[in-house]
Amino acid sequence: MKKHLIIAALLAAGAPATAFAQDYPDDNAPAEATAPDGTPAYGIEPYVGVLGGYHSFDRDSEFGALPSRGKMNGALVSGVAGVNIPLGAAFVGVEGNATKGFDDIEWEYGVKGRVGARAGDSGLIYASAGYQWVNGKRGFSDQKDWIYGLGVEVGPKDIGLGGVTSNSGVRLRLQVDTYDFDSLRPMAGVIVHF
Questions:
Q1: Tens digits of per-residue pLDDT, 133-167?
Q2: Which domain holds residue 127?
Q3: Handedness of CA 176, 181, 184, 190 (dihedral sign)
Q4: 3-state secondary structure of 44
Q5: Residue 66 — very low, low, confident or very high, per pLDDT cuts 50/70/90?
Q6: CB 101 within 8 A of CB 107
Q7: What is the distance between the alpha carbons of residues 176 and 185, in angstroms, rounded to a whole number?
Q8: What is the CATH number of the domain that holds 57?
Q9: In whole angstroms, how far apart are CA 91 and each of 58, 113, 118?
Q10: What is the rounded CA–CA span in Å between residue 121 and residue 187?
Q11: 55: which of 18, 27, 83, 163 lies 20 to 30 Å off by Cα?
Q12: What's the total number of domains in the chain?
């Protein structure tokens, strides 16, 4: 069922692309379209970033709870890399992460797709879904399952720091994910777009 929902979401995300793919005679071609931040409306936008946060699992998650430790949880430091494909005011993308955990989490790594809207001068609002591997320690097992999330990125100009970087440069990211709807994984950090 989850696979069907993800496929439907990806198809719905591709619908705006068909709306923008219009043929114009050469003499009636519109001026080059731009995104809200003044960058090209279409193309490829790679990025990298560093995030920090905390992952707390429910007692009824597939990791369970240990009598001596309770439920699985731990702080995280995550490196992310991905690419966005702007579609006018919307975008789609893919992102990978490699995450070092602390306490009960050894490592997490995964990949997910993103779809959302471009907002303000350089902001993004998005939903994401993908697959995440979690390696436990201190008696917790290694598992893999679906991960879902919501997030927002804001650029310097959006928060009153215009002129600090270029339009596509540094953005602050806030996101919250859930591992198979059995955990909360709030993360915050800095993303650098190229």
A1: 999 998 898 999 999 999 999 986 655 555 544 55
A2: 2-193
A3: negative
A4: coil
A5: confident
A6: yes
A7: 5
A8: 2.40.160.20
A9: 33, 11, 7
A10: 23
A11: 83
A12: 1
